[in-house]
Every structure is written in structure tokens, then in C-alpha cells.
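Next comes this protein:
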Amino acid sequence: CTSNFIHGHKCNNNTLREIIKTLNNLTEGKDKTACMELIVADTFAGPKNTTEKEIFCTAATALRQLYKRHDKSLIQGCLHGLDRNLRGMATTTNCTVNEAKKSTLKDFLGRLKTIMQEKYSKCRS
């Protein structure tokens, strides 16, 4: 298992790679569907002082709320995997999601991918 400790945060490169691969498949895949236009809580619109673990927890919670509401087997399987990996990185399961701001699943996943790629870059340096 490849792990590093960067800036006080444990890096699990295998988990990060798996998350990024899933996000790439969802956002760049040939099978993009109307699912990408589903509306999800914009957990990234929170305060600037939100911790990384809080971001991962709220993102996982928002994804879980979305895939439990929609019966799309492909998207459900991918989102469940993201939820599981994000929860593992958050190390907590008790977080609330502010539903006041919304975004499309496409935008949400794109922002999540950027965050994960930045974290992966920091872990590798």
C-alpha cells in the first residue's frame, strides 16, 4: 500500500488513483448520459475554512443522497464506489449537507476531480 503523510494529511495514492479513474470514466467517458444533468447539493460552495475531511464527507453524503433517489444502475454503481472511497478518506460518516446551493452532477464531479488531482499532485511531490 502506497501511503505518504503530507501537510498533516495521510495520502493513500491507491484510493486517490481509484477515485480519479472513476471520475474520469464518469466525466469523460463515451457513455455520458442525461444522468450528468441530475441536480446535486453543491457541497463545494461551503465556507473557505472547511477542512479536507469535511469536504470529503459532505461530497460523499451528497452523492449518496443522489444515487439513492435515482434508479440508474450504471451511475448508481459508480457513485456508490466514490461514496465509499470518499468516506474512507473523510474518516467520519457524521456530516450534514447544506442543500441551499445546487449544481449539476457533471459540474459537481468535475470540481471533485480537480480537488482529487490537486491532492494527488501534492502527495506525489
Q: What stands out?
A: Strands lie at 3-6, 9-12, 39-41, 102-104. The longest strand covers residues 3-6.
